[in-house]
Design goal:
Blueprint: H1 15-28, E1 34-35, H2 47-58, H3 71-85, E2 94-97, H4 100-111, E3 117-122, H5 127-134, E4 138-143, H6 154-160, E5 165-171, H7 183-194, E6 200-204, H8 220-223, E7 231-236, E8 249-252, H9 255-266, H10 274-285, H11 289-310, E9 325-326, H12 347-358, E10 360-361, E11 363-364, E12 374-377, H13 382-397
Parallel strand pairs: 1-10, 3-4, 3-5, 5-6, 6-7
Antiparallel strand pairs: 2-8, 7-8, 9-12, 11-12
Helix pairs in contact: 2-10, 3-10, 4-5, 4-9, 6-7, 11-13
EC number: 2.6.1.-
InterPro entries: Aminotransferase_I/II_large, AspAT/PAT-like, NHTrfase_class1_PyrdxlP-BS, PyrdxlP-dep_Trfase, PyrdxlP-dep_Trfase_major, PyrdxlP-dep_Trfase_small
Keywords: Aminotransferase, Pyridoxal phosphate, Transferase
Length: 400
């Protein structure tokens, strides 16, 4: 009898975590490493949020809380959805989890049966397909081509829907591409979904506040109110407020779904960290000027990286609408050989050779379901990004 479950055999470790770990190992060996693989803001959590956490400790808020969030935080989340997205929810329609990842996982685990299909636009965040597999479902991948701004079209969505479709996962702005679905693009998809009342919508809005130029963020239930009763709108404080380690995510949707997710959470992790919940409360209710400050920094970094990568021979880097990633194409580099003698057979080989020969760690596109590309996270300083782009350019110039 095998020790490990057959379910676990269906999934693979996170490639982004693996590459980040490898970069740390090389740095510990004394290599000059620039890691652009982790999706994590490099700013400190704003001071008023940190002070709120300290105050929570001093006030004795260090015990168990309600399984899926303290009442004060749930009310603040309701206020946020109404204020920023025009969506009205009650606290009974809100759940708080240990990061946005748990909200997504709980929703899929609570609803999927063997044979249920989940439509996932590619490029996708690496965890979506494996979460579906862990829950017993079947991922259905729909490719959003670079020529379409990495967005799927209404016709593609229509063609992917079957009688077995349970969910479609939307992520805008996207990890890994930074691509955003504006009102026109989103309405095209919601019009399709309105014709298929058995399909639920899981909207991952974690990068909502990181949008650039004149892009205006929208979420599916906001664009089409008729979808609200079959939509789970997920968000969190990790990216917007530089609170990745605090591990607070939240979602809002129909009461039946929220109760089911709470039931699952009660038998797994129970409540999110009490102190982090009070910190998240301060984030949502406190000053919001940090959001614009950080957004402007990321927009400047985006421009720097896009220009730097487009100066690399054989590389094409589209301009993303949001998040803090770029997803350049390297199709013109496949088949070449690096100065160090490595054959660039695919984007994984490119990323491996780049790390070995220049010390720059990126994530290969196959991990996100669309090749030949790679992802860079530009959540680091201008100086580091400039150095990284220079190293990548020299690497590309050395390809033969």
């Amino acid at each position: 009898m095998s020790l490990l479950s057959q379910t676990l055999a269906r999934v693979k470790p996170s490639p982004t975590i693996a590459i980040t770990g490898r970069a740390r190992e090389l740095a510990a060996e004394g290599r000059d490493i620039i890691s652009l693989s982790a999706g994590e803001p490099d700013f400190d959590t704003p001071e008023h949020i940190r002070e709120a956490a300290k105050a929570a400790i001093d006030a004795g808020h260090t015990r168990y809380t309600a399984v899926d969030g303290i009442p004060e935080l749930k009310r603040a989340i309701c206020d946020k959805f109404l204020r920023e997205n025009g969506l009205e929810y009650t606290p009974a329609q809100v759940t708080v989890g240990t990061g946005g990842k748990q909200i997504l996982y709980n929703a899929l685990m609570a609803t999927l049966n063997p044979g249920d299909e989940v439509i996932i636009p590619a490029p996708y965040w690496v965890s979506y397909p494996d979460m579906v597999l862990l829950a017993g479902g079947t991922p259905v991948i729909v490719e959003g081509a670079m020529e379409n701004g990495y967005r799927i079209t209404p016709d593609q969505l229509e063609a992917a829907i079957s009688s077995k479709t349970k969910w479609v996962i939307m992520n805008s702005p996207s990890n890994p591409t930074g691509a955003g679905y504006g009102e026109t693009h989103m309405r095209g998809l919601t019009d399709v979904l309105m014709r298929h009342p058995h399909v639920w919508v899981l909207s991952d809005d974690i990068y909502e506040h990181l949008v650039f130029d004149d892009f205006v963020f929208v979420t599916p239930a906001q664009i089409e109110p008729g979808l609200k009763e079959r939509t789970l709108t997920m968000n969190g404080v990790s990216k917007s407020y530089a609170m990745t380690g605090w591990r607070i995510g939240y979602g809002a949707g129909p009461v039946e779904l929220i109760k089911a997710m709470g039931k699952l959470q009660s038998q797994s992790t129970s409540n999110p960290t009490s102190i982090s919940q009070y910190a998240a409360l301060a984030a949502l209710e406190g000053p919001q000027d940090y959001l614009e400050t950080s957004r402007a920094v990321f927009e400047r970094r985006r421009n720097l990286v896009v220009a730097g990568l487009n100066a690399c021979p054989g590389m094409t880097c589209p301009v993303p609408e949001g998040a803090f990633y770029v997803y350049p194409s390297i199709k013109d580099l496949i088949g070449k050989t690096s100065a160090g003698g490595a054959l660039i057979a695919d984007d994984e080989a490119f990323a491996t050779a780049l790390l070995n020969e220049t010390g720059v760690a990126v994530v290969f596109g196959a991990a996100f379901g669309l090749s030949p590309h790679f992802r860079i996270s530009y959540a680091t300083s201008d100086e580091v990004l400039t150095d990284a782009c220079d190293r990548i350019r020299r690497f590309c110039e050395g390809l033969r």
